[in-house]
Design a protein that fits this description.
heterodimer; A: 684 residues; alpha/beta; TIM Barrel; Rossmann fold; five-stranded antiparallel β-sheet; 26 strands; globular; B: 348 residues; five-stranded mixed β-sheet; 11 strands; 19% strand
């Protein structure tokens, strides 16, 4: 007798910035609306306005601390609408389905959302077993208003156990409402990992469970205790002697200095590992709670360049890692760098939080800040996003839809922008880039280890408009120069030269898989006295495949434990010392040697980016990070360009003359007879 | 100060940034600041002092790292020794408004101190004051130094003292309202105090829901606002209504008497006017009177304008307690000094 064939449940498939739902393709675009913060009678109006913006999907957090109304004898009581109709998650999901909106759900457990305790129940945050620890064993306190709280330890077994109860409760409501039975198509696991903004090198986590995890991490990294002893140049008798560092000993010499550096680099790498470990744990919990079978996402907050999180490594735990965007218009270069980092490192460029407005206790952002940030990010390759917030709510200002579900004046601009993205098929678009700048994670870790301002970490400094190497020690630590600064300066120099020459490029995290480098003609890799052997093996492999690898100023001679090591030379060329002059010379050489195209060229500092959709040049952005008021753009062919926001139509035979505001971005839909892309090439 | 259950609602981007710009000295600077030149900006010189310089030093006050908050790393300071007595010179040479010197490890110590003293059931006010106390201790030990330090001699009150001062400004169960016009409503805010802390901050969107459409003459509309807030939120303890430029100027006013004069000529409407505010205005008026009688400005008779107000105040004030007496400093004077300094100095 033939065995019955199990019917496979169809699942949403994440394909770039497109969600495939059977035969239906949906762009990865949504808007946030927090059901529990909107009166139930306004839900429908709010959802309809989200849809009217041109968004196919609504996003919401599911707040643990709001739904948990009691906890006794280890058993939580949850209210999902029985007591307060605004907490009726099931009704909200069903209403979204009725309004033909899909749902992107973010049940935490940590969500922030400007909730007191970041959405985690106070009774749990008060549990000493849950709390992250400082070097002296004190709780790690987050200063955010309206109430400080002790942040949980991601390693804490108690915390991990508590989260299971919450996720199971969410699962009961959500599992039956997953697509195709319901509207839920996407899940986010936790929120903005990074030690709750307390990410200085010695802020945390010295919780017993974290220290235990640190020891297993060391074992995996160095083989056994003997390997750790050799790496740290220490005389550990037992594992408990291999304690995490609590300060940077900057005054050591010789082998002691090497041992200290190795230990510090291990500690910095461990912080990243801890976040990946926690995320993998949560993903298993999601699966067990019936929340599996849906694509998963994680969002990294602004300041990722200095944060103890690795987009590449987190990509092992979830399907897609994105960056959150909250920027004033003057940070267009930062928006560019962050977007190009995702373009090189992640499978697609996605913003789980593209800020529209902001919380009241952050730097104030105007409407223009939000819109220009969104358009600039798209200019450099952002393909999908979640407008956060689409509907106004408590502890927020500036959403395009108010809390009663009425569109504000600002909604018009968003509607036009979203309409242009939809009609051009922008989520399927690509942008040419044939140069990759490698983001060397082992040096980023050194920058984190040498940061001097503790709780005001380099991630925080970067988030408020600085750089992630801003307050690192300035001494050379026995190297020929302070590597903790040098790698950043060198990338900045190359980026400036490429920008001046209008050559498109991306950043690729050194820990991204080698497939991410596919299609680039040139890879530039900063390298100093020490480096990750795995990174150099990757570079050597790329060189063997014909990629032009430029590295320097040195061929490394030590590994990350500062042990002497042989490094393969990636290609035949010797290391290159890159000063400003050399950076420009290198770019000029690459332009000639690889015939790098600079389409739609204009006069710097104004920049243009062109995006192809289905093989045709379809969208042109003009980005103005300066106070220039006009740009002339060279055209490859006679073109009509229509402004996505104003509808203004500009025609040119060989060039376009475009009026531009200070620190602005304009999006043009291209209309011409021959827009076919010149040839197949790398897409970002 | 603020409740853990704080509700903040009813602001669009414009009304919120307008409100904040009144009190946030750095905001105009930020909006005017030139864009970054590269993906990762490096230090660049600027035409005028702005922002702050952060300097981290070792035990011997030798600089381990320094950065300018708006221009990036200050490389030339690394390895030099800081003279704590010459921070003004350092600020000038770095093109900055302020200097913050931090001893290596001080921020970690601050975090340890806060962690050790942390009580989750404290109010946010008590938590913040504890943080300030810990910072003040580090300052005393030479681990932190700020130049200039506008609050160097300002005592850190305890939470109970602060609450007593707040009782005078906004008693429990009452609301305070401010609406500013610049043609239409430019910004507005309603504060409510409940169970000892501010639990509601509401903006113009919420106000409009409570008032319905306003007539357009702010000197009349304010009555509708007060009545509506009283009905929808809580009895109003004080209301401040004016045109936005007037308040912007008054917040930065150094001359005694300007607030009282503005009220006297109804450029500012205070309604209701609690007796503590009246007392403060009375003191302001008396101080202004001394100056006004010493000089004639544009033919305006200051003394004549202020005398009726002073009489009224004397008649209404039944006790002498003021916010300044309770706190030991005048918060409005401190705010004014900070705003004047941060916005005025670049042009000096």
């Amino acid at each position: 007798m033939p065995r019955p064939v199990a019917r496979l449940r169809p699942r949403p498939i994440l394909d770039g910035a497109t969600l495939r739902l059977g035969d239906r393709e949906v762009p990865l675009r949504s808007g946030a609306m927090h059901y529990w913060r909107v009166a139930k009678e306004h839900w429908r109006d709010g959802l309809r306005q989200v849809k009217a913006l041109g968004l196919p999907m609504v996003e919401t957090y599911v707040p643990w601390s709001v739904h948990e109304v009691d906890f006794a004898d280890g058993v939580p009581t949850f209210d999902f609408g029985e007591r307060d109709p605004r907490r009726d998650l099931a009704a909200f999901l069903d209403l979204a389905a009725e309004e033909e909106l899909l749902v992107f759900l973010r049940p935490g457990p940590h969500i922030n959302a400007e909730l007191t305790g970041f959405g985690l129940p106070a009774r749990m945050l008060d549990d000493p077993e849950v709390q992250a620890r400082t070097p002296r064993g004190n709780p790690v306190v987050l200063y955010f208003p309206p109430h400080m709280f002790a942040v949980p330890s991601h390693a804490s077994e108690a915390y991990r156990e508590h989260t299971a109860q919450w996720l199971e409760a969410v699962g009961e409501i959500v599992a039956p409402r997953r697509w195709p039975d319901g509207p839920v198509v996407l899940m986010q696991i936790d929120n903005e990992l990074g030690f709750f903004f307390r990410s200085g090198p010695f802020c945390q986590d010295y919780h017993d469970d974290s220290v235990a995890l640190w020891h297993s991490f060391l074992q995996a990294r160095h083989g056994d205790l003997d390997g750790v002893r050799r790496a740290h140049r220490a005389t550990y008798a037992t594992w408990s002697d291999a304690s995490p560092p609590s300060r940077f000993a900057g005054d050591l010499e010789g082998d002691d200095r090497h041992g200290e550096l190795a230990r510090q680099l291990d500690w910095a790498a461990f912080a990243e590992h801890l976040h990946v470990d926690f995320t993998k744990h949560l993903r298993r919990r999601f699966d067990r709670a019936g929340l599996g079978e849906l694509p998963t996402i994680h969002n990294v907050s602004v300041g990722e360049g200095g944060a103890p999180v690795s987009v590449a490594s987190l990509g092992e735990a979830v399907d897609l890692v994105g960056l959150d965007y909250y920027h004033p218009t003057r940070e267009q270069r930062t928006i560019k760098r962050r977007t190009l980092y995702l373009a090189g490192t992640a499978p697609t460029v996605y913003a789980p939080e593209l800020g529209v407005g902001a919380p009241p206790w952050f730097t104030p952002l105007a409407h223009d800040d939000s819109l220009v940030t969104a358009m600039t990010a798209c200019a450099y390759g952002l393909r999908g996003f979640n407008l956060y917030m689409a509907v106004d709510r408590d502890r927020w200002y500036g959403a395009p839809i108010d809390v009663t579900g009425h569109a504000r004046h600002e909604a018009t601009a968003w509607r036009r922008f979203l309409s242009a993205l939809e009609t051009t098929g922008f989520h399927r678009g690509t942008r040419q880039a044939r140069v990759a700048l490698q983001w060397p994670r082992e040096y980023q870790r050194l920058s984190r280890a040498t940061h001097l301002l503790g709780t005001v970490s380099n991630a925080v400094l970067e988030a408020i408009g600085g750089t992630p190497v801003e307050l690192c020690r300035a001494d050379a630590l026995g190297f020929s120069q302070p590597i903790q600064h040098a790698w950043w300066d060198e990338l900045a120099r190359m980026a400036a030269a490429l920008t001046a020459a209008q050559v498109p490029y991306v950043y690729v995290d050194s820990e991204a898989p080698i497939e991410r480098y596919e299609g680039y003609d040139v890879v530039f890799a900063p390298s100093y006295e020490y480096a990750s052997p795995a990174r150099f093996e990757k570079l050597a492999a790329l060189a063997e495949r014909g990629v032009h690898v430029v590295y320097g100023p040195r061929l490394p001679s030590r590994d990350e434990a500062l042990h002497a090591a042989d490094f393969p030379r990636p290609g035949k060329a010797p290391p290159t010392v890159v000063d400003d002059t050399m950076a420009h010379a290198l770019v000029a050489d690459w332009v000639g040697r690889f015939e790098l195209e600079r389409p739609y060229a204009t006069l710097p500092p104004v920049e243009t980016t062109v995006h192809e959709v289905d093989g045709e040049e379809r969208v042109l952005f003009v980005v103005n990070p300066s106070s220039a008021r006009e740009a002339e753009i060279a055209l490859p062919r006679p073109t009509v360009a229509v402004d996505a926001l104003t509808g203004e139509s500009i025609t040119g035979e060989t060039s376009l003359r475009v009026a531009i505001d200070r620190e602005s971005c304009r999006m043009f839909v291209l209309q011409s007879e021959r827009r076919k892309a010149p040839r197949a090439r790398r897409r970002a | 100060m603020i409740s853990a259950e704080l509700r903040f609602e009813g602001f669009d981007a414009r009304s919120w940034t307008n409100l904040v710009s009144l009190f946030m000295p750095g905001l105009p600077d930020r909006l005017d600041r030139a864009a970054d030149a590269t993906d990762s900006p490096v230090a660049a010189s600027g035409p005028r002092p702005t922002g702050s310089v952060l300097v981290v030093v070792d035990e011997d006050d030798v600089v381990l790292a320094a950065t300018h908050t708006q221009r990036g790393r200050v490389r030339e300071l690394a390895g030099t020794a800081i003279d704590r007595e010459s921070l003004a010179t350092l600020a000038l040479s770095a093109g900055a408004h302020r200097v913050l010197v931090v001893r290596e490890g001080a921020m970690e110590e601050l975090a340890e101190q806060l962690g050790a003293r942390f009580r989750s059931d404290d109010t946010y006010l008590a938590q913040v004051l504890e943080l300030l106390r810990a910072a003040r201790e580090l300052e005393g030990a030479g681990d932190l130094a700020l130049w200039p330090n506008p609050i160097a001699n300002v005592p850190i009150p305890n939470a109970a003292t602060f609450d007593r001062a707040l009782d005078l400004v906004l008693p429990d169960g009452r609301a305070g309202v401010m609406v500013l016009w610049d043609g239409p409503v430019w910004t507005g805010v309603v504060l409510r105090r409940r169970n000892g802390a501010i639990d509601l901050v509401a903006g113009p969107d919420a106000l409009v829901r409570w008032t319905g459409p306003l007539g357009g003459d702010w000197r009349r509309d304010y009555r509708v606002v007060v009545d509506s807030v009283a009905r929808s939120v809580a009895p109003v303890h004080f209301g401040l209504f004016a045109e936005a430029p007037t308040i912007r100027t008054l917040l930065r006013a150094a001359d005694a008497g300007q607030w009282a004069q503005a009220v006297a000529v109804r450029n500012v409407v205070l309604s209701p006017m609690p007796r503590t505010v009246a007392a403060a205005l009375g003191a302001d008026a008396v101080r202004g009177l001394g100056r006004a009688s010493a000089r004639a400005l544009g033919g305006l008779d200051f003394a004549g304008a202020l005398l009726p107000l002073v009489r009224e105040v004397r008649a209404r004030v039944t006790h002498a307690s003021t916010v300044s007496e309770i706190l030991g400093f005048d918060p409005l004077a401190v705010l004014g000094a900070v705003l004047r300094r941060d916005e005025g100095e670049p042009h000096e």
